[in-house]
Design goal:
Layout (H helix, E strand, L loop, with lengths): L5 E3 L2 H6 L13 E3 L14 E7 L4 E5 L14 E6 H4 L2 E10 L4 E7 L5 E10 L8 E7 L6 E7 L8 E10 L1
Antiparallel strand pairs: 1-8, 2-6, 3-4, 3-5, 6-11, 7-10, 8-11, 9-10
């Protein structure tokens, strides 16, 4: 099962991970080297090319099948990266349960020897009920190698909710 996340991504990680699976209800942090059920492994010698649009922050691929051969405007900035860098990315997940009428948080910490690239979250909830408030989804304020998500579950009609947090870590 794939779950979409709200992520603040580095440009390398944005291409590496389009959708991340999270084990619902997992209580402990899990480290995985690859995304199960994801795309086939990429040849490490592959170089990816993309263009960055400064005014909007948009990034689009170039020099690949069914993409432009170059940036479409002179104001767009071309950049590239190797697949070898993507092989050094791991995903750490953690979950928490937030009862009705309370604030809750979850933290995903990168293993020792790795560096936090980015993170995000997923809320497991029934869309027909009151939506919880995401107070934060950001690097942890006292641990720069962890991603923190805080959720307030106070909306009318709220039900208990689970929050899954994801950290992308580089070696």
């Amino acid at each position: 099962m794939f779950t979409r996340f709200t992520l603040r991504l580095s440009l390398v990680a944005a291409t590496a991970v389009a959708a991340l699976p999270v084990a619902a209800g997992a209580q402990a942090a899990n480290v995985t080297a690859a995304v199960p059920g994801g795309p086939s492994p990429i040849d490490p010698s592959t170089t990816f090319y993309a263009c960055y649009v400064p005014n909007s922050g948009t990034v689009y691929r170039i020099k690949a099948a069914n993409t432009p051969g170059a940036c479409t405007k002179s104001t767009h900035v071309e950049f590239s990266w190797s697949a070898r860098a993507l092989a050094q990315v791991s995903i750490v997940t953690s979950s928490a349960h937030v009862p009705v009428g309370e604030w809750g948080s979850a933290v995903a910490s990168c293993p020792v020897g790795t560096t936090l690239l980015s993170g995000g979250h997923h809320l497991g909830l029934n869309a027909a009920v009151g939506l919880p408030i995401v107070g934060a989804s950001r690097p942890h304020p006292t641990d720069s190698n962890a991603w923190l998500v805080t959720v307030g579950n106070f909306q009318p009609g709220a039900m208990a909710v689970s929050v899954d947090v994801v950290a992308m870590c580089a070696q």
